[in-house]
Design goal:
Length: about 240
């Protein structure tokens, strides 16, 4: 199955605007009568048929709709963006493919970069969602401050973890996390979290965790954390 994305799958028909329509018709050579699967990124998958094609848009009819069952767990990753934007785009693509519900790009004491355009990351997330045949689009937030994230009451019921460089942390994330739960994990910049940030996070209920014996790049640590939590839930 090939999956396409449109945020508004309205019944009985909807229209694809300019660039999306051009890609569907000119690049993929779809024609009137072809049936295509779409997702709205909110859990809905619809089987659609191309009804008409014009220079400015393509009209599709919704034939069938299904709603994907809600996952019994959620993974939220708060991570300090790297200086190299390409590395964050790579991580976004891979974590979305594996399974990430929300990504927060946060400002920390040692952040290499305090601003990153979210539109490119969102495009990567959409592409990865379609590639991996997922029906829920990963939420992406940028510019949030570390201290605001650890104090956010929304995360009170979550299992909360902080990963930083310390060979004396005895427990791996896989050992600490409980399956079928909601998780928030913090991953710091290349210069790691500051001692004050680590202290504040632990006082706010975050558990220090290991991601393995190797010293990982920021984007690799983010990917490792997301993969670990998905694996924990898939085998439990």
């Amino acid at each position: 199955m090939q999956l396409f994305y449109h945020p508004e799958l309205t019944s009985p028909t909807f229209q694809l605007p300019g660039e999306e329509s051009k890609h569907l018709v000119k690049v993929l050579r779809k024609k009137v009568g072809d049936q295509i699967h779409f997702t709205d990124g909110k859990g809905k998958i619809a089987l659609c048929r191309i009804d008409s094609i014009s220079q400015k848009s393509t009209t599709l009819q919704v034939l069938e709709e299904t709603i994907a069952p809600e996952k019994p767990y959620q993974i939220h990753l708060a991570i300090a963006p790297t200086k190299n934007a390409d590395r964050m785009e790579w991580m976004t693509e891979k974590t979305v493919e594996i399974g990430l519900d929300r990504m927060i790009l946060m400002k920390t004491d040692n952040s290499e970069r305090n601003f990153l355009k979210s539109d490119r990351l969102e495009k990567k997330a959409v592409s990865a969602m379609k590639q991996s045949l997922k029906s829920v689009l990963t939420e992406i937030e940028t510019g949030l401050d570390f201290k605001d994230i650890i104090a956010d009451p929304h995360y009170a019921p979550f299992e909360k973890f902080i990963a930083y460089v310390d060979q004396n942390i005895p427990n791996h994330l896989f050992e600490l996390a409980n399956p079928k739960n909601k998780y928030l994990i913090l991953v710091g910049p290349e210069g790691d979290f500051s001692p004050d940030e680590i202290k504040a996070a632990i006082e706010a209920g975050f558990k220090p965790c290991s991601l393995g014996h190797s010293r990982l790049r920021t984007e690799t640590a983010g990917l490792a954390a997301v993969h670990t939590l998905n694996l924990l839930n898939e085998i439990s």
